[in-house]
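cron nightly-structures :: item 1 of 1
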Amino acid sequence: MASSTIFSSPSAILSSTTTKPSSSFKPLLPIIQLPFKQPLTTLTATVAIATILTTTPSPSLAADSYQVYYGTAASAANYGGYGGNASKKDSAEYVYDVPDGWKERLVSKVEKGTNGTDSEFYNPKKRAEKEYLTFLSGFRQLAPKDAVLNNLALSDVDLQDLIASAESLTSEEVKDGKGQVYYVYEIDGVGTHSLISVTCANNKLYAHFVNAPTPEWNRDKDMLKHVHESFKTVGSN
């Protein structure tokens, strides 16, 4: 190729300086300098732009975003079987955050009447990664922490299995800014992790669960903890 002839034959360049070029002869020097005509500042700007494009995160990689769910905790007799109505803010008894992209599982009237499940959302990419809330009427205050967890397990087979196979189980009592008491449990089971928050308000016991298989827990730990901590009751007595 022409470029290889120029660079591999420096003697040709030297000899051209002593021979008068013909009218059709074009100097070789401009051809040699052509790749270096771009200003240094332009090259610097190009590199800077490329660096920005490769290091600036896209909007899809930004912090997780959430939607607030408003739960009414309606009794089975007044329940239509549609998992509650998230638009009824005025009648909400509790709230929690739902990650964008998660789907609501419709809770049947029968299920609501048997184990008190009021609402549930799950990750469509991994249905076992989910959050749900159950409630029981007729509770004005919390019993001891161990008793509360065991009583919840009576109507939740999955929770029974999780407790039975737990590698570790921790519990603590916390109070919010209004002095309302919450029991917080963290269960690390065989292949599954669970965060549970339990409180009493409005003459009811509310239990909010966040469950995930271990791989999803390790991947989404911060997001799942946020969801867990977002639960609170509304209009507490």
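cron nightly-structures :: done
Helices lie at 2-8, 10-16, 29-33, 40-55, 109-115, 145-153, 157-164, 214-229.
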